[in-house]
Specification:
This protein is of the alpha/beta class. It contains eleven helices and ten strands. The mean pLDDT is 95.
Length: 343
């Protein structure tokens, strides 16, 4: 009998090599990206996508806010298409960064067309995984990262490869050295080797019946993505929150069958750990993942701080994968979902 979710598992485990392959492409394109008017003469940046790439856009908008003075907005692609007057600057030289695994999603393609119509002085940067799909022809700069291609429906490798590509866009915007990111694959491989089987055991634990994923700052977008993976793959009750917002009502849901997973940071670790401690006091279970000595799953903080959420992704995805397969569900073919939404 074939293993449930075989494609998902292989894609999930192959991420460090996929990141390395993506970085090779990005090093070749980085000078062009850094010098293009889409970033050198930009008045405003909009990050956008659909589904998982939208949550990546949320992540990147917060990272840009941290690292750059350039104004930033994040919106689902459908909002750019359906509500352009409320979404697209009509003056200045804005840049739209569109993130998409497939490069074929209807809302993303229509968002690109609407942006061209509404902002004739603007630029588009696309980051996707397939050179032969429509989106890869629509930008002023088109970054294609084939190592993110997948056979499964729920995104794992594609999401993290797009994350590497999006970081390169941000590094180009801020005049940073792309070599800062070269250590990502090695750290990711070590973290997977050390903790993945523990994550598999957590996901397969029938004692949990609901999961909450917490992330502060840019990690909120990653918490949203982790929660989406849990829903898509395993049809389990799961919600994302900012760490400290969880006390403002959602903690009423905590029971002895709850697992609260915190994606930790170096900057606000003490406050985040205090939230998890409170949830244990309420009877829930917790798991902290991050570059902190206090984290249950931790690694040395040798990478730029903005990269640590990416390192946590395979562990979060492994919990969702294991939850699904332990329930007899196939992560390769989630309930009611298709790989691409075409309207």
């Amino acid at each position: 009998m074939a293993q449930l979710g075989m494609h998902t598992w292989n894609e999930l485990c192959s991420q460090p090599q996929a990141w390395s392959d993506a970085l090779s492409v990005l090093h070749q394109r980085f000078a062009e990206l850094r010098q293009h008017r889409a970033l050198t003469h930009v008045s405003h940046i909009i990050w956008s996508g659909c589904g998982s790439p939208y949550y990546l856009a949320v992540t990147m908008s917060r990272l840009q806010q941290q690292r750059s003075d350039t104004p930033v907005t994040v919106l689902p692609a459908s909002e750019l298409w359906n509500n352009p007057a409320a979404s697209i600057p009509r003056t200045g030289t804005p840049t739209l960064v569109l993130l998409s695994r497939s490069g074929s999603t209807t809302e993303v393609l229509k968002a690109a067309a609407q942006f061209r119509s509404s902002s004739p002085n603007g630029c588009i940067i696309t980051v996707s995984c397939y050179a032969d799909r429509p989106l890869a022809q629509l930008g002023d700069i088109n970054i294609v990262l084939p190592s993110g291609q997948e056979q499964s429906i729920a995104q794992t490798r594609a999401f993290s490869v797009l994350h590497v590509g999006a970081l390169a866009v941000l590094w180009a915007l801020t005049g940073s050295d792309l070599h800062d990111l070269d250590g990502i694959p090695a750290v990711g491989a070590a973290v997977i080797a050390k903790y993945q089987q523990h994550c598999v055991a957590i996901g397969a634990n029938p004692a949990y019946d609901q999961f909450f994923f917490l992330g502060s700052g840019y990690r909120y977008g990653l918490a949203c993505e982790a929660s989406l993976k849990m829903k898509e793959m395993s049809l389990t009750v799961s919600e994302p929150f900012h760490h400290m917002e969880f006390r403002h009502g959602p903690q009423s849901m905590v029971t002895p069958k709850t697992l609260v997973v915190g994606v930790g940071s170096q900057l606000t670790n003490a406050q985040e750990e205090a939230v998890l401690k409170d949830m244990r006091t309420l009877g829930g279970h917790t798991l902290s993942i991050g570059p902190n000595e206090s984290s249950d799953m931790q690694w040395d903080a040798t990478l730029p701080e903005e990269c640590n959420g990416l390192i946590a992704l395979p562990l979060l995805q492994s919990i969702a994968y294991s939850r699904a397969t332990s329930r007899g569900l196939d992560p390769d073919n989630p309930h009611n979902l298709n790989a691409v939404v075409v309207l």
